[in-house]
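Input sequence (471 aa), recorded before submission:
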Amino acid sequence: MAQASKQPLIAVVGATGTGKSDLAVEIAREFNGEIINGDAMQLYHGLPIITNKVTTEETQGIPHHLLGCIGLEQETWTVGKFVSSALTVIDEIRSRGKLPILVGGTHYYTQSLLFKDALSKEPALNLNENSEHFPILDEPTSVILEKLREVDPVMADRWHPNESRKIQRSLEIYLRTGKPASQVYDEQRIKREIEQTATDGKQAESSTGLRFPTLLFWVYADKDVLYPRLDGRVDKMLAKGLLSEVDELSRFRADYEARTGNAVDQSRGIWVSIGYKEFLGYQSALADSTLPPAELEKQKIAAVEKTQAATRQYANRQARWIRIKLLNALFGAGYKSNMFLLDGSDLSKWEDNVPRPALRITENFLSGQPLAEPTTLSAAAAENLTPKRNYDLGQRPDLWQKKVCETCGTVSITENDWKLHGQSRAHRRAVGIKKKQANAKARAPKDRSAWQADVVDVLETYLDGHPGDSH
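Predicted structure, token format:
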């Protein structure tokens, strides 16, 4: 007789705009569940359009937790704070006899919650309500990076100066464990290799395994259909009142800086949410009564295009995290059969391709029935559910090779990153511009002083070879 999973957890991951929230609500309705938000921007109170929060109607009466629970003036939660809070909520949901369902696009939150490794395990990072607060983690990224370079130069070299979250996380690991993050990653890698050899590919209850019996759904959409959807979403955001939220956030910042005398660090927190910074220029233009309508329209189009591009890039990063980090973590711990890809590319077949198989798989999982082989669910599942490489580069500091492009200033960590940058359109364009500037400089007429210096050089060379002609 099949045995039901004890303390089960359902996790729904995927890129923005793929329908993760819709699926989570469907599962919650069917299996008496409650939903935990795993999106860093949706932790913030208000701003439902910029943060793309699920609406009251869309929740369909299902309780949602960790949604709109922090103020705009607060820093984005560290991974430790999120994991601690989420674990508390999970316990509360289970105490009511309900099923916890995690959904969100901040996948480093998700992965740290799911796996009981040294990056998220209690008490290794002291992840509890009474955890010590380290004020330096609230400092500007440049200050955090300087401290990280002092205690862990390997990790400091790993990150680009703009990667504020990763820099902050690396220092947090050091502060909470007393070990450099580069050492922690290396120890984890060695431990995983030993455990994987010992278990011979079987699931193992190890320190790198899943924290709870977990079923994961990856709501997927092909780029060719997802990108146009995301582009259209920006127009919908404007129609719903995006500019009013941009104005609200700008006024909040001005008021906060006036009250405290401190400048807001706009490199992190709610200030990096897509749709805010991209529209600041257009918002200022609207307040300028001297600008003609054509210029306003030009600035609006530019803001829309920047927001669309940023959203597409974000979706791509989310998918890369799943393919490279999350899948490798699942495979490495022996849980590759727990991840199911649901292809939502064709919206006309959404019901058949996403909710229906998800509900069937969830029922089998909760009742302890055997699960189908995930790669058999669709062609997209067969293609995407195998990691492109058998390791997570983020946990292999021995493979990091930092290089900086002199033309672009771009930082590459691996040989492959360096190769891809060299082939990129941005790099080729920058090289072309630099070459044109050099050619233009070479053709430009010299000023009189430069011309005179050249004449003196010629004369001195001639006289050196003809000393008798010195008169």
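Checked by second reader. Confidence is low (pLDDT under 50) at residues 118-124, 199-207, 467-471.
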